[in-house]
Amino acid sequence: MEMKYESEELQKMKLSPAARLFQSPRFNCHIVSLIGCTTSIDPDVIKHGLTHTLLKHPRFSSKLVVDDNKFWRRRRWVRTSVNLNDHVFAPTLDSKIDDPDQFVQDYISHLTTTPLDLSRPPWELHVLNLKTSDSESLGIFRIHHSVGDGASLMSLLLACTRRTSDPDALPTLPAPIKPPTPPPDEGGFAARFLRFLAAIWSAIVMIWNTVVDVTVFGATILFLSDTKTPIKGPPGVERSTKRFAHRSQNEKDVGRNKKTNYLPKKIRLNSTILVNLRPTVGIQALADMMAKNSKAKWGNLLGYLLLPFNIALQDDPLDYVRQAKAIMDRKKHSYEAPCTYFCARLLQKVVGDELTAATARRAISNTTLAFSNMIGPLEEVSFYGHQIAYLAPSVYGHPHALTIHFQSYVDKMTIVLAVDPNVISDPQCLFDDFEESLKLIREAVVKQGLNKETV
């Protein structure tokens, strides 16, 4: 199957600043997303569906072209013909593979060692009709990060799906909860004056938080590095082979760990979080774009923020949750992410893409891990008629030995780990620790809830 365009005058699009950074050899990032299905996958059906949806999206039918001259190098997206046989792969597999889960991990790990062919649109879909512990088959999307950010790509993927219960309906995502806004005249003059003072104080706190966060971010670039711990990757970790693992439900009955404190004192451990700075592109808008050639904003519009982890042994498991929520509430009341984005834009204009990418890489290298979460649909969905069992996205190419993603789907949460096996040899041990921690937190919530009811 091949998608062609009418004339040689192909549409040309500039790369966004973030996309140019992701194209830098020092910051060459890729997105990997697993789609587990409850039935075997028909590759021909998938190709037919992609022809009528994904290939109508400009970014998935464009290749990168580099213009060089004596003074500058410029990269552009150029629309091109797409042969799906160059992008969709369905290898013939032995149904008697001893350990299908390990085979899938090895398969994805091998993908991280092979670069995408940039002479065509930088994406691939691998179809593996292999029964694993949590699916009958799976598809593996590999997409260069310059194509789009995680929020846009997840929205686009969901725009290609339909509800299993209603094949004509798009999936729905949880609506954000907004606090009610009181009417302007409610409470009289005194109440309005208090709200005015609260708004001034909120602005002062916002400015203060932003100044502190941007200063710490700058110090992290220059000299403030995380403590060297067993999970911090060595220099050059971005070039090492990565392994991906996920867990969607309780698979083992994990026993209680003894509360013995072996933690060293004064650990500095930070996570890097990429923040989507534009409102997430709606699923309906992307579906209309592919079906009706309408316009929707696309690309990478990302800022960074640093999320400090408090490494300590607490008596109450909920103290971890309270501390994490307090940190995130403060981060939400700061312009750290927009400031890092605009500083990167300014740096690109002054010193160019390569030095800006080196600066971003240094900031990430001085932290320990990357952390992200994505919201999935509220109901079960099907990908071109194939019911989805789970979604598991991740990323590789950045200088971290550990990346953690949380992905929701219906009433289930999938945790995805991308690890350097030379640093973290057994990610299943981490899963066991996460699962045990979540159990302890849940039990503490139930226990404290019962105590409140009895009071």
From TrEMBL:
Membrane topology: Single-pass membrane protein
Subcellular location: Cell membrane; Endoplasmic reticulum membrane
Substrates-to-products reaction catalysed: a long chain fatty alcohol + a fatty acyl-CoA = a long-chain alcohol wax ester + CoA; an acyl-CoA + a 1,2-diacyl-sn-glycerol = a triacyl-sn-glycerol + CoA
MF terms (GO), sorted A to Z: diacylglycerol O-acyltransferase activity; long-chain-alcohol O-fatty-acyltransferase activity
Keywords: Acyltransferase, Endoplasmic reticulum, Transferase
Limits of the O-acyltransferase WSD1 C-terminal domain: 298-441
O-acyltransferase WSD1-like N-terminal domain residues: 52-239
Predominant subcellular localization, coarse grouping: membrane
Family per similarity comment: In the N-terminal section; belongs to the long-chain O-acyltransferase family.
Protein name, UniProt field: Diacylglycerol O-acyltransferase
